[in-house]
Specification:
Pfam families: Fimbrial. It is built from one helix and nine strands; from the N terminus they run αβββββββββ. The chain has one helix at 2-13, and strands at residues 35-36, 60-62, 65-80, 84-86, 89-91, 97-103, 117-127, 130-136, 149-155. Strand 5 and strand 6 (97-103) form a beta hairpin. The radius of gyration is 31 Å and the shape is elongated.
Amino acid sequence: MNYVLLVLAVLSATVHAADTVNITISGTLTRPPCTMSTASSLTASFGDVQIDKIDETETKTLPIQLRCPAGSSLNVSFAVSEGTHSATIAKTNVANLGVSMLWANNDSTANLQGTAKSFTNLSGSVDMSMKAKLIKLGDLSPGRFTSALVMTINYL
């Protein structure tokens, strides 16, 4: 019995004051982004277009395909290198010739002045294809035309 008391006395003599540390674990769970399954650089080549046939020129489709996890959301916006004639008509390097971008699924015009369009609840294969359409805004002279746009897809 004395031996037990001695062991207890030794063990209790080695106990010191204790400090505590509070630990917080935090983070944000996010969905993985969609992945592009088409090229990140596309060209709409109209070839030779007669000035008097601009309004009859067919649109050029730009295929943009994504693969998205279930429940994905994203915003799509455009920036234009030459500036714009209006919210939906980009300038080209030729006076009085513009280009509009249409959503291929419904032919509605895209805002080309940075206002984003939102897409929600996406899943699997997602078609974000666009169509380029030439717009005659006045008298034109023969010559080469170009315009450049950047489509930005922000994953939410």
